[in-house]
Hints:
It is a single chain. It is globular and about 60 Å long. Helix 5 packs antiparallel against helix 6, helix 9 (225-243) packs antiparallel against helix 11 and helix 12 (288-308) runs antiparallel to helix 14. It has one domain (22-116, 199-422). It has a two-stranded antiparallel sheet with strand order 1-2. The chain is 65% helix and 1% strand. It is mainly alpha-helical. Strand 1 (178-180) and strand 2 (186-188) form a beta hairpin. The chain has 18 helices and two strands.
Amino acid sequence: MKKTPVKKKPSKPKKTPAERLISLDAFRGFDILLMIFVNYIGWMKGVPFALKHAPGDMDAYTITDIVFPGFLFIVGVAIPLALAKRMARNEPLLSLVRHIIIRGLALLFLGLVLVNQGHFSAEDTGMSKALWYVLFYLAVIILWKVYSKTKDRIKNNIYQGMKIAAGLLLLYLVAVFHGKGSDGEIYRLYAFWQPAVHSWWGILGMIGWAYMTCSLLYLFLRGNSFALLGAFACQLALYIADRHGGISFLNPISSFVGVGSVLGSTSANVMAGVLVGRLFTAAAGTDHRARLRFMIIFGLTILACGYILRPLHGFSKINATESYTLATSGICCLLLAVFYLLIDVMKKRRWAVWLLPIGFNPLLAYILPDIFNSIFRLANDWFGINLWGFFWPYANTGGLPGMTNGLVMTCLILFVTWGLTRLRIVLKL
Length: 429
């Protein structure tokens, strides 16, 4: 009598972690390096108009004007990817909301400090601006550095001790900070509710507001693409309504944060990225072709919409107009499609390797130029060493020599970021 073979239950496939979106890291690195370069040369004479910001009253945008929307767009692409990982770990909703708000507030704090650099009063603070900011950046690096996981109790205690010391230092620096307004009035940094302090919140502060707005929307709309598209349209409508006095009842909020320009059009740059980033989550279930098709169609559509709406308020980075938001978001979407095609689809990655250190460690790369400037000033104040003159011999020359000097300094930031990343000094909010 033959034995009937016992059917084995099919083994469940092992879940493999999603491959990192290398193209996004490369695109982020490219955007930040371009930002550092144009920031270095933007104030020089003899620099082409395309490498400077267009004036606020000019109906135009330049290559430089695409840098900030590019970073906002990249932040948006990363939101679904980051939240999807946390959701996969069954993290509670309250925990997700807390994470978003803490990260957003950290960006607001950094933006608040950086935007007040120009108003720093050494006489009233009791220390030089250079020393204050060197100590500030030291505390930031210690607090937001990613520490390797270890079971060594002594190491963990050292890490915790360093963080506590850095936190106390940061509290002290905030407590002693004094700024001087344009009217000569002295103000304190911790009085963040005063318009004299938060001003326009700075680049990082605007990113913080837009990040919190779009992350919370993504969470509560459950990543539904149609609902997110509706939110994108509402954000643009919010800007238009604000320009025409349609939301004047929100003026008390606008005195604290721009409802139309920050929560509206600037956040729409991030939401455009969220709509693209959703394609790369497991829930979307899309392949390379579907992703590229969406990015190309979506990018071309919103780029065209930007030009269609141009007669309404024109292109203006300073005013964050809806047409500027749409056009620059469309360009960024198409650029990401190119990066994605080459790096993640065709696997041609060698050309982008030099961009990845910046892309992996963007916050450190962003603050390094300011750290260098603070160290240069401190070296001059304490030791009379003119490091600025050594590193910037062609700063006042401008033109091709000045731009070459700016390129060399940008490469220096790249190499220092690469070295610090290799030493595992990676910052993460």
